[in-house]
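Attaching the record inline, Q. Sequence:
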Amino acid sequence: MPLLPPRPHRNRTEMPSRSRKGLEHLVRAPPGCALEQAHRILGAFERSRVANEQMTIKALLFDFDGVIIETETPIYRSWLELYQSYGFDLPFDLWILTIGTSEKFFDPKEYLQKQVGHPLDWDEILPRRRAREMSLVHNQPPLPGVLDYLKDARRLGLKNCIVSSSSRAWVKGHLERVELLDYFDFFRNRDDVAHTKPDPELFLSALEGLHISPHEAVVFEDSPNGILAAKRAGIFSVAIPNDLTRLLNLDQAGLLIDSLAEMPLEVLLRKIESPNLVVKSDQEWQFE
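Structure, as predicted:
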């Protein structure tokens, strides 16, 4: 997983500050284990304690579409089916311009009308397309690992926030449907700003509303537009590609993981802050 320069981090546990000696009861050397190895294990606990005390992350800033719920593929599919009903294809290289932002970079209505060669009755077409989109999205559950992250953030005293180029009604409607709305403390949507991603305004507005600095937040994104917006705002970003965006270049993200279920929140936060953290599995990690 690519990792950019280390970032301030957050608490794994609410462990009180203790001396090295005070941690010795946490280490039980197995039979035959050399004292030197036991000391190395103890050292890992001690470095973990120091990392705990230095963590400064206060908020998790989640994109919505493709990060919380997989809406990207259903939306694309509904437009693709509309294009195909007129005998045309919807080029993916044009559609990706809309992912993580608004339609100002690519208008699928205008493009289809140009392909057809005559005006279309959008008053009839759009409600039908929208109904198809909703039927596809309605079956989508929260993506793997999302609920665990939201619960762990609450336990660790972090704010859960949505920062999305979609409308607040769209976001809150789906969060309510999947019973996640109450886990979020703060929202910034396209309704709140003049410019959506890749412009940093959404993230800068969120930082201002939360009264935090860029180094006190972590962004979770699935698209190049969102990652670029976070970078422009000076916030560390974690890329979690979905079925559509895994085809795109997400190299500008500070960290790339396949799914939130791949790495527990506390380990991910440590990984951001500590480049020398080796993650062996979601349940096994150590400092080198």
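The first helix runs from residue 35 to 54. The chain has ten helices and eight strands.

More tomorrow.
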